[in-house]
Design brief:
It is a single chain. Helices cover 42% and strands 16% of the residues. The protein has 281 residues and is of the alpha/beta class. Strands 1-11-8-7-5-6 form a 6-stranded parallel β-sheet. The chain has a 3-stranded parallel β-sheet with strand order 3-2-4, with helices on both faces. Helix 2 links the parallel strand 2 and strand 3.
Amino acid sequence: MQRIDGKNLAAKKQAELADKTTQLKEKTGLVPGLVVILVGDDSASQVYVRNKERSALAAGFRSQVVRLPESTTQEELLALIERYNRDSSWHGILVQLPLPKHIDEEKVLFAISPDKDVDGFHPTNMGKFWSGHPVMIPSTPAGIMEMFKEYGIELEGKHAVVIGRSNIVGKPMAQLLMDANATVTIAHSRTKDLASVARQADILVVAIGRAKFITKEFVKEGAVVIDVGMNRDENGKLCGDVDFDSVAAVASYLTPVPGGVGPMTITMLLEQTFEAAKVSL
């Protein structure tokens, strides 16, 4: 079994991005700007936001994190987003999810200008993506496609099973795999005999949100397994949706958690911010 090292790949791609940012700045004076808005004090979100800020600064971006209290109203948040929409020095706006329960996530995500929606969640960007003219692509699936490319994993003609049907991972992942000429099955928590469906996969992408749920009984010998999960086990240790030790015995390639998909998600977010900055010239 070969471990897919997302951390190393992310470091390599972010170093390349830092070079491109330096060149852009020298040629045009433009510095890509990414603002991340965090509402409340969710501990996992705090970690993600710190990592995004650190990576953005390392890539030579202007980076700002706006930390707002849990009590922030929806109107206050929408007004802040509108301010950044109008400010041409910021090219990417990201609102960290989840938001407090009194705020409508959909309204907030739809308020971000499609040109600055580097997460790719705005319906305009989703529509372009589904119709085959992508501009902004959800970062996690985009990062996974980069992993396949880096490790020379052939997708054409392969049977891919995606477990999970969210708009953030499952559905866009299926679309990108289809675009790469894989045959795709989307499964989920209500799928009957999920293990037998999963065992048909040459490529298995798991985003189900259950710690260590996928064991070797779900995996065909030699399958490529991508673990998108981010959970805590009974000891509070970070783990994925895949039971790594069990699945490592049968998979040909496997992503660890942490150090797998997560760093590549941040990398693709930065790539899209860079592209949005270039388009703004």
